[in-house]
Design goal:
- By secondary structure, the chain is α+β, with helices and mostly antiparallel strands.
- Helices cover 18% and strands 39% of the residues.
- It folds into two domains: 133 residues, Diaminopimelate Epimerase, Chain A, domain 1, CATH 3.10.310; 103 residues, Roll (Diaminopimelate Epimerase, Chain A, domain 1), CATH 3.10.310.10.
- The chain has a 17-stranded mixed sheet that branches.
- A hairpin with a 2-residue loop joins strand 6 and strand 7.
- The two termini are 17 Å apart.
């Protein structure tokens, strides 16, 4: 039985420091993303593979972004994907700034020069209800071994400051704390060590994904936590497994700056779409 070639779906593969994404530009179309399709696309052997999927749709500003984790769950924020899509839209329009609506709110992104893109990820969420946590507790020293810090950046984060992030078993941290009872929506987990003045080594376990080479929202949360703990100033460089990001916590939000890469564009076949419909 022949399939209709018009049912093919174009996509883009992008990454920011190895934090990789499938991006679907669905502006002018009815949304066509299901949890099952996300699961199929996320499979690095039978699909395309990604940490997150970002769907671009029409919005009140330049565009709206919806984010999905590799396990099909949704996330309100994804900083590196936002920067990648912003670069795509700036290249498309010839502009040096765009405004994107997300479940996190309206995010402004600008061309920072030298191939870099900056995005304002908004003010951190520092009330236990907003992170969210299961109940009222000290977000600067959770009652967990290691006294991690909790921060919201549109998604929840649990940050452990350790002597040497390289020496820690990230998988053990992630598997133990992603689903900790204190985090009703699960959480991203970071292990972090101070490597110099305003310089941090960061390793990230992302909820619904696992170990990831970089994470924009995690980087913002770590920068906020480090400043609140008095380890750094509000402007820091974070060295992740995939490379370095700069984060500046300002009075108008947390700005995150780094490179982006549009790796390739492709088309999902009718057969693949039918198999994962």
């Amino acid at each position: 039985m022949e399939t209709d070639p018009t049912s093919q779906m174009p996509f883009m593969k992008m990454h920011g420091l190895g934090n990789d994404f499938v991006v679907l530009d669905q502006r002018g179309q009815a949304p066509a993303v299901s949890e099952r399709l996300v699961a199929g696309l996320a499979d690095r052997h039978r699909g395309v593979g990604f940490d997150q999927l970002a769907a671009i749709s029409d919005g009140a500003e330049d565009a709206h972004l919806t984010f999905y984790n590799a396990d099909g769950s949704m996330s309100a924020a994804c900083g590196n994907a936002t920067r990648c899509v912003a670069r795509y839209l700036m290249d498309e329009t010839g502009r040096d700034a765009v405004r994107l609506t997300t479940d996190r709110g309206v995010l402004e992104a600008v061309d920072a020069g030298g191939g870099l893109v900056s995005v304002n990820m908004g003010a951190p969420q520092l009330d236990w209800r907003d992170i969210p946590l299961s109940h009222d507790m000290d977000i600067d020293a959770l009652p967990i071994d290691g006294a991690p810090m909790a921060t919201g950046m549109g998604n929840p984060h649990c940050t452990f400051f350790v002597e040497n992030a390289e020496a820690e078993d990230l998988q053990a941290y992630g598997q133990r704390y992603e689903t900790h009872e204190f985090f009703p929506e699960r959480t991203n987990v970071q292990v972090v060590s101070l490597t110099g003045p305003n310089s941090l080594r960061v390793r990230v376990w992302e909820r619904g994904v696992g170990h990831t080479l970089a994470s924009g929202s995690s980087s913002c949360a770590v920068a906020v936590a480090a400043a609140r703990r008095g380890l750094t100033d509000r402007q820091v460089t974070l060295h992740l497994d995939g490379g370095a990001l700069s984060v500046h916590w300002t009075d108008i939000g947390v700005w995150m700056t780094g490179p982006t890469m549009h790796v390739f564009s492709g088309t999902l076949t009718p057969a693949f779409l039918e198999a994962w419909s």
